[in-house]
Specification:
This protein is mainly alpha-helical. The protein has five helices and no strands.
Length: about 160
């Protein structure tokens, strides 16, 4: 189980570093849309992309270089939950466009934004389900080990 958990954390870290770097690269661009207000946060798209890129890349790097599975799983699950909340906010506002999750990088590379949006939804599902599954496995494993250790110990008897 630990091998698969470690594999999830490493792949989640790689995804987050890639998407975080893409956001940071996009935020440095000169597209006029970067100066418009983000529909959810009402800050400029540039600032939202910079903030999200730093947080994403930071969590991703932490997943790649440290070995603290519980904290890493919690960070991935929490960040994925924030992304779901953002997308939900867009939907509730009636936003019809594609999520600008990678900024203008899709335009620069000539990639269809609808395809990228679908791929990012898959990546988001992977991070969300994987993060919470990892947390569940880690907490249930600790709970089981704690109870097993309790069964093995002999109670002290007074003489």
């Amino acid at each position: 189980m630990i091998k698969y958990l470690r594999w999830f954390i490493l792949t989640a870290g790689a995804v987050l570093v890639f998407t975080g770097a893409a956001k940071l690269l996009s935020s440095a661009g000169g597209a006029k849309v970067l100066d418009l207000a983000d529909p959810v946060f009402m800050f400029s798209n540039r600032h939202v992309l910079m903030f999200a890129g730093v947080v994403e890349a930071g969590v991703g790097l932490y997943c790649l270089v440290k070995r603290r599975e519980a904290l890493q799983s919690l960070l991935v699950a929490a960040l994925a939950t924030c992304f779901v909340a953002y997308r939900l906010g867009l939907a509730l506002m009636g936003y019809k466009g594609h999520c600008n999750c990678l900024g203008q990088l899709t335009d620069a590379l000539g990639v269809d934004p609808a395809l990228v949006d679908r791929l990012l939804v898959v990546a988001l599902a992977y991070l969300l389900v994987g993060g919470y599954a990892a947390l569940f496995l880690l907490t249930s494993r600790r709970h089981i080990l704690k109870h097993m250790a309790g069964d093995v110990r002999q109670p002290k008897t007074e003489r």
